[in-house]
Amino acid sequence: MKKRNKVLIYIGISPLVxxxxxxCILILSGIGFFRIFTFRSDLDRLLHRTxxxxxxxxxxxxxxxxxxxxxxxAWPDKHPDVEKLPxxxxxxxxxxxxxxxxxxxxxxxxxxxSHLGVTAYAEDFKKPIKNFKYGNKKLIDGLWFxxxxxxxxxxxx
Length: 157
Known about the structure:
Blueprint: H1 3-28, H2 39-48, H3 52-64, E1 69-72, H4 87-90, E2 96-100, E3 104-108, E4 116-121, E5 137-140, E6 143-147
Antiparallel strand pairs: 1-2, 2-3, 3-4, 4-6, 5-6
């Protein structure tokens, strides 16, 4: 085969290899390639199409029922108890939830390197330190929005 033909083959294959590697990196990093395209709908579902009071009640119920630790929602690491979680939590389509004893439940919609979710606190939760930050924005008493990249300071509700 001529040298010119080999070069053309390498030029043709290189972009495909690069795209494949990029896809693998995104999947393995926990972001999930298609998750990027669902950002607006995930945020809208959480902030505007969720009954925050019902979600808070559901989170407090699982704390009282003795759920503890992390529950991964997505395959392949799906926790067996996920099917028993309240529908208010599952409706958010989280990647995982974390129950910290009787103190709070954190619901993560993204995970990986970008965090987006809510934290529901127990009725009798006491701040562990003076400058404790509940979250980025209070949705209702006991339920706080949390994100490391979304600024809701200009949100009206």
